[in-house]
Amino acid sequence: MGVKWKGLTAALIFLLTLLCAACGREEAVENGKVYKIYYVNNEETNTLSGEYSSETTDPEKLLGELLEQLKAVPPKLEYKPPLAGSFTLLGYTLDNGQLTMNFDEQYKTMETTREVLTRAAIVRTVTQIPEISYVSFTVQGEMLADSSGMAIGTMSADTFIENAGDEINAYEKVNLKLYFANEDGTKLVEENRRNVVYNSNISLEKLVVEQIVKGPQMEGAYPTIDPSTKITSVSVKDGTCYVNFGDNFLNQPSTASAEVTIYSITNSLVELSNVNKVQISIGGETNMIYREKFNLSDLFERNLDLLVTP
User: Fold this and answer.
1) Residue (of 167, 119, 168) closest to 139 by Cα position
2) Count of other CB atoms within 10 angstroms of residue 178
3) Strand order in the sheet with 47-54
4) Using CA of residue 141, residue 146, residue 151, residue 154, what is the dihedral sign?
5) Most buried of 57, 68, 173, 244 (most Cβ within 10 A)?
6) Please, are residues 84 and 122 in contact by the beta-carbon 8 Å criterion?
7) Within its chain, how far is the Cα of 252 from the centroid?
8) Cα separations (Å) of 40 from 20, 37, 74, 168?
9) Given this model, what pLDDT does residue 165 score?
C-alpha cells in the first residue's frame, strides 16, 4: 500500500505542476507581453528598469503606450522618469524602422550626464518594439549634436552597452583640469572639472578640446574659443597632440588675447599624461600666423606664467 500511495502522490504532484504551468501561461497571455521601462536613478549615475505589460501589437499604439510610461511616475522612489524633465517631446515619426523624436530647446539645457542617461533610457525602451531598430533625436527639427557640434545621429539599443547591473558603461567619468580666460582676457584661470561624463569611444584629447570649446562652468572664468568653432580632428603622436580646427576658429571672443587662447588649449591638453606639446592648425593649414602673433607651424609647450595666482 505504501508504494501505491507514493506513486499516487508523485502523480498528483506532477499533475499539479502541469496545472500551475498552464495557469502561468494563461496569465502571461492575459497580461500581454512584458517590456522593460528604463528610468534614470536619483543619483544620475545609471539607468534602472521596471516592467510593463501590454497586449497591444500595433507598433504605433504600443509606442504611444511606452512613451506614456516614460513620462509617468515610476514604481520606485529612486527612479526618475526620463520624459518628465523640463523639456517637451514635440512629436515623433516612425518610418521604415527609424523613429525620429523631436524635442524643444529645453532639451539642450540638461547636464551631460543626465542627457546621456535620458537618451539611453528612451532608446533602450522603445527599441524593444520589433518595428523600431533605430532612433534619432532632433531639437526643433535640427539633429541633436554633441558639445563639439558633431551630429549624434541614429542610435540603437547597442549604442548603450549594459552590464549585469543594468548600468550604462559605454560612457565613463574623468576629472579634467582646464584653463580659461580671466575677465579681461589677459590671464588664464584654472578650472577643475570633476566627473565629466564622456563616450569612451572618443579620445581624452578630443574630450579636452570639446570642453574648452564648450566654455567654462565656474564664475570668474571666460571663454577662449568661440563656441561655434568646429573641431575637425584631434590626434596624438610621439607626445605631440595635433588639433585641427575649422576656419571659424579665427572668430575669437573679443576678451581673450591670442596668447591666452593658444595656452588655454595647450595647457589643458598637456595636463594629460601622454601629451607634452601641441600643434594647432586651421583648416588643415599650419603655414600661417595666428592673429599676427603666433606661427602655427611651431609646437607649443606648457606655459604657466599666464596663470592667475591666488
Assistant:
1) 119
2) 27
3) 47-54, 33-41, 79-80
4) negative
5) 244
6) no
7) 27
8) 36, 10, 10, 11
9) 47
Decide if pLDDT at 88 tops 50: yes
User: CA separation (Å) from 95 to 14, 102, 121, 124?
Assistant: 49, 14, 21, 18
Query: Residue 139 corresponds to which cell in the numbers above?
Result: 531639437
Rounded CA gap, 178 and 210, in Å?
11
- Tell me the C-alpha distance between 167 and 153, whole Å: 22
Query: Residue 229 has which C-alpha cell?
Result: 568653432
Give which of 268, 283, 299 is closest to 181, Cα–Cα.
Answer: 268
Question: What SS3 class is residue 49?
Answer: strand
H-type alpha helices, the chain: 2-31, 59-71, 112-126, 204-214, 258-270
pLDDT in tens, 90-131: 999 999 899 999 999 999 998 877 888 899 999 999 999 999
Q: How far apart are CA 172 and CA 198, in angstroms?
A: 6
The model's pTM: 0.53
Q: Could you tell me if 286 and 279 are in contact, meaning their C-beta atoms sit under 8 angstroms apart?
A: yes
